[in-house]
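Sequence design from tokenized structure. All designs in this work follow the same two-part layout: the structure record, then the generated sequence. An example of the structure record is given first.
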């Protein structure tokens, strides 16, 4: 991708503002960790792995600005502030834990060393994410075989990660290996990550794509126009249940009804072994205005009650396989996920 989702430059964090894509390519510069937290909360940057990378960079930036005498207290405050931004994607908490470990393991070496090591760790998380996506893309491309018409939901592309993407990483890898692919892009109401972001990425890469509204998925499946579904994930529970963008569950049910394989792609940092099942995954509720309004204009009568869960849980029995950078996890997930992560 020519466009960078996030970048650390001269002790500033620069993010492509995903709220205004595809019409404007505007960059937001974060000067401190509070601005990073705000950018995550407001979805300037979004997508589970990208949120993790942003949080890690936020910790490193916050630490770099902190004076030695307040360092330990301030470090806790930085972690706490970033942890409160979005609740569902485990990658956020995974990245914060990695940063905390660097601090704990090296605190005795002095504050300046810790600051330097935190910056290194954030860069490492960034680079590892791109490498993981490329690797899982290859596994996914061979798993999908000759599937040609692929449906995806939300944006699990370069914009949602440090680069390359998870679900879109699989699609990119298919194209790179010479396969013919055509993508059905679900618009993904209410935030329109599909229409605004996935469509933008695929167009930029000249991968054939067609935009549909979310309620057209069943019709296309019934007509034999979908060979496979690939989506990303915000959290994979220990039993294989997966939280992903609202609407994913409905598509998985439809795919099962039509005998279409339904694949989940994500790095192992999206797996939460401490979360026994999907019931234990916290689901973010967002501003009702995302549903009742569009581009600042009301769609619905004033005062109507609105419900706006940002994610849903797809139960493990609807998932054909989970693709990670370590390979492919097949059912039964309860045992296979644990083995996969520990190898
Ligand atoms: O609310 P968002 O845009 O952060 O939700 C993003 C998704 O649900 C993605 O599918 C998921 O994070 C995987 S991104 C590789």
């Amino acid at each position: 991708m020519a466009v960078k989702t996030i970048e650390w430059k001269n002790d500033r964090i620069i993010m492509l503002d995903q709220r205004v894509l595809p019409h404007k390519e505007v960059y937001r510069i974060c000067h401190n960790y509070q601005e990073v937290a705000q950018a995550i909360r407001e979805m300037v940057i979004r997508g589970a792995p990208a949120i993790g990378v942003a949080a890690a960079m936020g910790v490193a930036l916050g630490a770099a600005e902190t004076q030695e005498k307040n360092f330990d207290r301030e470090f806790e405050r930085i972690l706490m502030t970033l942890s409160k931004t979005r609740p569902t994607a485990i990658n956020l908490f995974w990245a914060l834990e990695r940063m905390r470990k660097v601090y704990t393991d090296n605190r005795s070496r002095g504050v300046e060393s810790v600051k330097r090591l935190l910056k290194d760790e954030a860069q490492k998380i960034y680079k590892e994410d791109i490498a993981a996506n490329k690797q899982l893309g290859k596994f996914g491309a061979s798993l999908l075989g000759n599937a040609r018409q692929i449906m995806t939901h939300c944006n699990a592309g370069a914009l949602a990660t440090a680069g390359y993407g998870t679900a879109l990483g699989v699609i990119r890898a298919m194209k790179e290996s010479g396969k013919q692919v055509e993508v059905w892009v679900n618009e993904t109401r209410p935030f329109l990550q599909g229409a605004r972001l996935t469509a933008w990425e695929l167009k930029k890469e000249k991968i054939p794509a067609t935009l549909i509204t979310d309620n057209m998925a069943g019709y296309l499946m019934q007509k034999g126009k979908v060979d496979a579904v690939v989506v990303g994930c915000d959290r994979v529970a220990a039993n294989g249940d997966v939280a992903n963008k609202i609407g994913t569950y409905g598509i998985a049910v439809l795919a099962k009804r039509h005998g279409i394989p339904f694949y989940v792609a994500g790095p192992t940092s999206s797996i939460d072994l401490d979360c026994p099942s999907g019931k234990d995954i916290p689901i973010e509720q967002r501003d009702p205005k995302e549903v009742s309004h569009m581009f600042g204009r009301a769609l619905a009568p004033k005062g109507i009650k609105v419900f706006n869960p940002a994610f849903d849980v797809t139960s493990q029995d609807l998932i054909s396989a989970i693709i990670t950078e370590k390979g492919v996890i097949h059912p039964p997930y309860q045992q296979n996920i644990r083995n996969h992560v520990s190898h």
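The two ends are 31 Å apart (CA to CA). We note this feature because it recurs in several other targets discussed in the main text.
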